[in-house]
Write a structure and sequence with these properties.
- The chain has helices at residues 17-40, 48-81, 87-115, 120-125, 128-132, 134-143, 150-161, 164-177, 193-198, 205-221, 223-243, 249-256, 261-288, 314-328, 330-341, 378-395, 409-430, 436-468, 475-490, 503-506, 520-539, 541-553, 559-564, 573-592; strands at 179-184, 187-192, 345-346, 358-362, 367-371.
- With 594 residues, it is mostly helical.
Length: 594
Amino acid sequence: MDLSWELESLYPSFESEKFNQDRELLAESAERLKRWSAEHLHNRTHNDRETAQAIEQFLKEYNAYKSVYLCLFSYAELRFSVDSSNMDAVNRMDELEDTALAAGEVHADFSKWLAKITDLNTILASSAYLAEHEFYLYGLQRQSAHWLGEEAEAVIARMQRTGSKAWERLYMQTLSRLRVDIRIGGEAQNMSLAELRNLVYDGDVLVRQAAYEAEHEACRSVAEQSAACLNSVSGEAAAVYELRGYDSPLHKVLTASRMDQKTLTVMLNAIKESLPVFHKYYLKKAEMLGHSGQLPFYDVFAPVAGESSAKVTYREARDVIVSGFSAFSAELGEFAGKVFRQRWIDAEPRTGKGNFGLCVDIFPIGESRIITSITGNYIDISILAHEIGHAYHSSCLTGETMVNTDYPVPIAETASIFCESLIHQELRKVAPESETLSILERSLSDAGYYIVDFYARYLFESRLYERRLSGVLSVQELNDLMHESMVAAYGDSINPDTIHPYQWISKAGYYMAGNEFLNFPYSFGLLFSKGLYAQYKKQGEAFVDRYRSFLAATGKSTITDAARLMDIDVNSPEFWRDALTLIADDIQKFVESV
């Protein structure tokens, strides 16, 4: 099977006639937005009918602009993500961001103008097209309070190109090009950071320890540069969000995620309460792996004793995913099969390719593209299933306009982690009885990752922004902050001396400008999907169509309202405790099975 993806259905190349035609089309679309702004926002007084017509015209122009922009930028982003040395991709992204500045200024101006309309409900009732965009338009009215004046927003957007966006790109290039020398079985090897990190799943403890130590040294070698990137990205975010009237970067993230502070608080409280149960799991794992007392951190993701050391091929990963998804619904199984047949996936490990899993949804062509690396480990199947889950979620919004395809990150992670749950169940079903314990442990390992590890990441980022207000943090201060956060999450179950403090370097989410706190959404996704999976087990086939309708509604709902479609109250502590109890029950089975 071909491990590289097909991009020609998007564009054959940067030099292709199709790509350059769309560049011209984008410029024309941006110019039409400017003309619309000059005509409707500055020089005229509207009655209700004219106002409705003006809003509808803006939405159509803006949706058309976003459609072309997404195709062009996705292509450049995809090319860069698998080859960080591709300067054509970098230049195209810079050029596109220039065009986006003008459109962004009009959008901000439109939001301010929209906020002055006192009877928007009457306006929306006059047009079926406007009614389709009710959620989006009311959202803009609310968010307009956080937009600065047109000139200030334009300055911020332009400065970010050589500020946070440039620091983010430098970080991505640095990590993707990092090579590490390591000896495995007496043989010297040179690996990318992605290949090195996958060795934490190796069956040999000496390999895991050597990989972990090599990662520590690799991160240390780029620590000063990474600290400069992190300080710059976080410092800019804190300053800009303060100017826009947010209480904190977290306040901004919750607003953008359509999530209440209460929802986050009750979820985090439930997670904190549950940590001792996960500590019990890690201590049992330490015992199984032959450690006396605490588990070394390099063994957190280790396979349990007796697990097969056989490598997983790309073809085998496909077969497991298609089979597992088909057991849920024929539609999901067929979708996964299409993803493989039409080569939406780049799965080949290579130098210069980012060390992450990523799904880029290209709504205008009804397709997605997925970045991952198949290195032969079990985790490869889980990551790939996760990303295909994102692509399936997006496919459920087919037919929506561009502005109605934007759904909250925590809900996005729900769909992807739900698909991971399906694959865990498939593995339990097809594996021999001798593998049952190993498969259960793998599931718990993933749960610990999303709950315990991501809780530590949340603590680190929260404390980072608190400290960043007082100035730049040194490498040592960042190390101390990470170590404190990891100890707070993992407690006495992990030997604190084995926690390498440079983990803030290998977590790409901290450096993604405009995407702060990419941690708690994964915890939300795991626990919310647990609740959904429990419903699925009770309802069977009746759940399938309901679940698809839920995903289709997420572009035009808050998290609270979307959850209600599935009879879930995300502000209830009991919901989160019940979801965590499902994991606790599996932990108890694991502890008692040995």
